[in-house]
Structure formats: C-alpha cells, structure tokens
Amino acid sequence: MRLLIFLSFLFVNSYQLIAQYKEIANFNLKSLYGKTFKTSYLISEENPVLIVTWSKYYCPPCIKMLNRLKDQIPLLEQKYGLRFIAVNVDDSNKFSSEETQISFLKNFVDSLGWTFENYIDIDQYFTKNFTETTPFFLLLKNGKMHSYFISYKTTIENIENALNHINTNERYFNDNGLPSLQDEAHTKHILNQINDSIWSLKIYEEEKLVKEMDLKYYFPSFIHGSHKEYYDNGVLKKDYNYKNGVLNGKAIDFKENSTPLIEGVYKNGKIDGIINYYWAKNGKLKQKFEAKEGILLNVQELYDINGNALEIGNFKNANGWLNSYYDNGIIKQKELYNNGKLVELITYTSKGEFITRSYILNDYYDIEKHSEVIYHQLKNALIHNDFSLLDSSIFRITFYSEAYFNDSSKIAKVEAKKLKLFNQFSQINKIAIQKYGIFLKNTKFENYKSIIDNQDMSKTYFEFSIVGEDQSNFKVMVKLNYMKDGKFYIEKIEILD
User: Fold this and answer.
1) Which of 39, 108, 117, 389 is deepest in the core (most CB within 10 A)?
2) 3-class SS at 385?
3) In whole angstroms, what is the distance from residue 210 CA to residue 216 CA?
4) pLDDT reported for residue 457
5) Which stretches of the chain score pLDDT less than 50?
6) In whole angstroms, how far apart are CA 258 and each of 238, 240, 286, 467?
7) What was the pLDDT predicted at 203?
8) How far, rounded to the nearest angstrom, does the alpha carbon of residue 94 sit from its chain's CA centroid?
9) CA–CA separation, 446 vs 295, rounded Å?
10) Which of 212, 205, 43 is closest to 139 using CA atoms?
11) Is residue 72 a contact partner of residue 66, using CB atoms and an 8 Å limit?
12) Strand 295-302 relative to strand 222-230, pairing
C-alpha cells in the first residue's frame, strides 16, 4: 500500500535501461562432471561465447526453449565458431548435497538430449546480482560483453541476428527486445567506445533518434554523463546529467515546442536546490520549490495558469501546510509536512467539495492513525445517536473523479452502502437499550484495540467496549476497508456477544 505523494513529482526516476545488470565477475561454475571452472577461463577466447541461464524449478519455458534450440545449436557452433554455454541457476538449497544436485541435473540434461555445455551456478552469482535471471542471454567476444537479451521466446534466428553484428557497433532489436534483422528492427542501438570506461549509446525507434546517453562501461552499464530523450518530431524531450548511474547536475523536461516543463538540479540522485514547474498550456511558471538533499524546504512561488499568485499555506522550512491546486484555481490538496515528511493529506474535488483526509507514516498510509480517528468519530456519533457526525469520507465510498459524482447508478450504490451502514449504526443504540439496558449518552467507551493487517485490509478492524453505569457492557467490532487511493471507510459495525 505504498503511497504516491505530491513530492514524487520532484524526483525523476533514474533510467535503468541497462543499469539493472551488473558486470559478470570471475565466479565459479561447476560442470555436470563435478569440475569447477572460473568464468574467466570459459569466456576469454576470441570466438563468440553465448551464456544462457535456465532453471528446472521455476522456469519451465526455459526448458522448452532450449529443447527448441538444441538441434540447431551445433550449426551455429560450426558456422560462427560459437561456444554455447548453459548455466543452471536453481537454488542449491533444494538439494541435500552438491553431489545430489550434480547427479540430478546431469540425469535431467541427459534425458533431454542436451549435448551443449552445461554448468551449475554454485556461487548463486546470477540470482544474487541480476534482476532477471532466466533465460538471460549474454553474448561475449574476447571476454567482453557485446549484447544481451531476456526472453524464453528466443529463436535460433534471434541468436544468429546477434552473431551477424558481433563485429559492428550496431545492434538491432524487434518489438520484443530480441535481436532482429536490420530491415525488420523496431529499435537500433549504436554503441561507440569513447575510452576505456565510457561508451556512447544512441537508440533509434523506427529510424528516429529517441535517446542518447553516455555509459560508464557497456556492461555493467550505468549512465554516466549526458542522457537525452527526444519526441517523435526530433525535439528534445529530456536533458539529464548522471554520475555513476544517478542524477547529478541539471535535469530538464521539455514540451514538444521546446519550452521547459520541469527544471531542477540534482546531487547524488536527490533534488538539491531550486526546481521550477511550468504550466503545460502556456509555459508560465507554476511552482518554484527549494529542496535540500531530497527534502522539500520551501515553496517560493505558486501561480495559477494566468500568472496570479496563489496562497501557499503556512509551509516553511520543511514544516506546515502546503496547498496544491486544480487548473481552475480550486484547492486540490492540502498537505501537512513535519520535517519534510508528509503526515496528513486532505483532498477536494475541482468544485471544492471535500473528498477525504489521509494520515501518512513513512510514505505509507497510517492505518493505526486512521483507525483511532474513525473510533473517536464513531464514539461521538454513538453518544449523540447522530449518524451525520461521522466524517463523510469514513461512512461511504468516495471518488476523486467527478464522473462518479455525476453518475446516478454509482451514486445509488454509494447511497445503498450508506443506508446499510446507517442501519448497523442504529442497531447499536436499539440493542444497547433493549438487551443491555444501556443508554449510550451515559456510557464509557473502554478497551479500544485495533488489529492492523497492512497486507490484507479485509483482516483490519478495531473493537471497543461500551460500559453502562451499572458496569454492564458489550463489545463493538468495526471492520475497516479502503479504496486504492487511500480513502478509508467503515465496512461493517457489529456487536460481539
């Protein structure tokens, strides 16, 4: 239930086009005959080497793929001098011993008629260091990475397409990210080595330049230096600077007419300095923020689309209330910050109607706080026997979209749910009097306890005891639920006998 908050607009995600894959180190592989090899020994030769990972237990498609390829691999080995190496990445903990693992996998490989080289990743290097491990294709020459791709749909033609460009600086890929023929390619990569550690990569889609960047190494490849993206018409879309894979320096997003949308300065991946937002419709300044090491400190300027100054709130030095607005100048959200952390959020429709109030703890919805607030409101409403004293956002489903407010069928469902809950509410007063002889306005509310399940809101509820003047008592259970955008509401109220 991770919360997407207003500040998320401040932080541009680093592109991980290739950065999610780390460099292949010199780790150990065990052959199916029990001999250990260093990867440096296996990949150092001049001829191309293709490493393919597979799993017996969690990647059945990998096995089907290798079965498809097995009869054609010898043809590639003969034509290109290719060395084809399959690496099993199954967890060694599934086996009682290393000998058992080797024997099991050897029998399995033999039963499938796989004659290509097979090894076991006994160091679990791929599992520990790669985001995706199967089936991972790594094409190398002279011990250096040439290209890689991940798909169990890989065909022998895809592999041959990659091999045909192994001596060039061009790589061609189809819509699925697999190596393709040049005239069938959706994406083209042009890679040039600038020096021992810096590579320049240009990416084309349908012959149009869409990205260009400097990489520190091709594998591992994290962006180091300039990173640019382009619209279909060739106009610059993004102009970022990176250092060792994280944003560092100036970063600008542009409209298609080349006017800026967002511009700011980053340090070690965090916004650090002034960041400006501009209205997309006319390019006028919308917001001007000051941040330090990723923490919003101050909002210096805030304007509507016509350039009129808007009320910021009392936000200052990372504390207080901060307003954000719809295009029509109506407040959209009020956000309360404590030392740069969002702790409370109030939302409104574009007509100014209240939607909901949310409490936040460490960027998550604070369910415990919500439970306590709902409990105190419910307590007050029960004492006065007045259902209307409940905050509207906690006894009915509400929606951000005004389309819901204008849809009679959806309003009917909301009202039906509201009526059902009202009947449950009314029953508490009736049962309290009829069964327990308790008048709620003369009672104590005790033993509040909440049961919170962050993973399954259907198991989240709170309960409390209502104690009469003669100490007779009964327990009430309130089941909670929430909409995906964080609006909590009462799902059910019942008396526990």
Assistant:
1) 39
2) coil
3) 20
4) 66
5) 1-23, 395-403
6) 10, 15, 17, 68
7) 93
8) 30
9) 40
10) 43
11) no
12) unpaired
Give me the pLDDT at residue 219, please: 52
Predicted confidence at residue 474, as pLDDT, reads 81
Q: Give pLDDT, residue 391.
A: 66
Residue 290: Cβ-neighbour burial (10 angstroms; 0-12, 13-18, 19+): middle
CATH architecture under which domain 18-169 falls: 3-Layer(aba) Sandwich (3.40)
CB 181, CB 165: distance < 8 Å: no
Cα end-to-end distance, the chain, whole Å = 33
What DSSP state is assigned to residue 94? G
Q: What pLDDT was estimated at residue 239?
A: 95
Residue ranges per domain, the chain? 18-169, 366-496
Contact 286, 273 (CB under 8 A): no
Distance CA 233, CA 494 (A): 61
Q: What is the pLDDT of residue 156?
A: 93
- Between CA 335 and CA 358 the distance in angstroms is 10
Q: Do residues 317 and 330 lie in contact, with contact meaning Cβ atoms separated by under 8 Å?
A: no
Q: Which backbone phi and psi does 372 adopt, to 5 degrees?
A: -65, -45
d(CA 363, CA 356): 17
Give which of 355, 353, 334 is closest to 345, Cα–Cα: 334
Residue 187 one-letter amino acid: T
- Tell me yes or no: is domain 366-496 CATH 1.10.10: no
Q: Which two tokens stand for residue 380?
A: 């007050």
Instruction: Quote the CA–CA distance of 89 and 25 in Å, as a whole number.
Output: 16
Tell me how far apart the alpha carbons of residues 389 and 382 are, in angstroms, rounded to a whole number.
Answer: 9
Two tokens, residue 147: 């290209």
Q: For residue 148, which amino acid is it? A: Y
Dig out the tokens for 153 from the structure: 């749909």
Q: Can you give the pLDDT at residue 110?
A: 95
Q: What is d(CA 276, CA 429) in angstroms, rounded to the nearest whole number?
A: 55
Closest CA to 149 of 135, 137, 161, 134: 137
**Cβ pair 88, 105 in contact under 8 A:** yes
DSSP secondary structure of 236-293: EEEEEEEETTEE-EEEEEE-TTS-EEEEEEEETTEE-EEEEEE-TTT--EEEEEEEET
Q: Which of 328, 311, 260, 317 is nearest to 291 (CA)?
A: 317
